[in-house]
Amino acid sequence: MKNLKLILIILFVFAFINVHAQEKKKFKINTVAFYNLENLFDSINDPTKYDEASPIMEMSASNRGEVYKKKVRNMARVVADIGFDDTKNTPAIIGVSEVENREVLVDLVNDPQLLNKDYGIIHYDSPDKRGIDVALLFQKSLFKPITTSSHELLIYDDLSRERVFTRNQLLVTGELEGDLIHVIVNHWPSRSGGEARSRSKRVGAAKLNKRIIDSLQSIDPYAKIFTMGDLNDNPTNASVKEVLKAERKIKKVGFKGIYNPMEEFFKKGLGSNAYRDAWSLFDQILMTQPLLEKDYSSFRFYKAGIYNKAYLTNKRGRYKGYPFRSFANGNFTNGFSDHFPVYVYLIKEVKEKKTKTEN
To answer: Are 346 and 176 in contact (CB under 8 A)?
Structure first.
């Protein structure tokens, strides 16, 4: 009996120590996000681009300047809000798409809502026929770029065999508070002409994406890689499931495998954009297996989300609940985007310095 009591006392002490130790753990948290900015074009006609087809250029010249300012202000508000409720900070890194040029990004990061975050910009011009690009924004105090590159997507129309000029894929390698990570920003070909007819173009984009990932993993099999963007495909489509082989469940992700947290949202009927009374989840953030490990001495995946706050949604009418887009029927609605942003949280344990009394 005495031995049993002694064992129970010892177990209680160890349990108390363990709980106490867990309570003292502290974590850094950073947001990594993606946002389709829906036609963030400036108000100046660029003769080298087909920007006259952009919604803002279809408006009267007297209105364009004010509309552009409101559009930038609205985009800055969303970027400033993503993840803020939990992290008390704006995203450390955010990939964006549907931007016309570097200048619109300069205006975005210099908006008063973002200016004090001192965002850097990584942008390359793409050969896209509409003149839209992808880019990466990053807080300079948190992320230090090392290398950047733009990867051209060579695809052709199935019927005409003419080249389809579309967005390049942006690769950025850098250190997030000392942790080496790689980020690929995508905007895959649209479903123009129908999903089936355009499918091969997105499969081609996925193959390019997989080659970039494979090349990084050939150098470092344990590379922490994010691939994010508006894929114009859902998590269950062939481009994502068969080419990238992205898994819905963490436990199924093998060595050099890819995890897609967005598939779980899609299975629940959630989406980032809507069309003809159906939700799609084209906006996705995927990651490689090393980001899923439970050793929090470096940044690991914690949770994912779709940023669909009430102010980003239509409140009434036929499109109630849909993303509150900026442009509709040739008019500026003072909305935000026809896509919701998506995000993931990364956490890393902070080791507390022991005081003299603790040693």
So the answer is: yes
Tell me: pLDDT of 356 over 70.
no
Structure tokens at 301: 């995946």
Please state the pTM of the whole predicted model: 0.91
Angle between helix 102-109 and helix 61-81 axes, rounded to 10 deg: 60
In 3D space, the residue among 278, 227, 355, 300 whose CA is nearest the CA of residue 28 turns out to be 300
Looking at CATH, the fold of the domain delimited by 26-350 is given as Deoxyribonuclease I; Chain A (3.60.10)
pLDDT tens column, 128-179: 988 999 999 999 999 999 999 999 999 998 888 899 999 999 999 999 999 9
User: By C-alpha distance, which of 173, 291, 170, 169 is closest to 224?
Assistant: 291
DSSP string, 234-247: -TTSHIIIIIS-EE
Burial 316-344 (b: 16+ CB within 10 A, else e): eeebeebbbbbbeeeebeebbbbbbbbbb
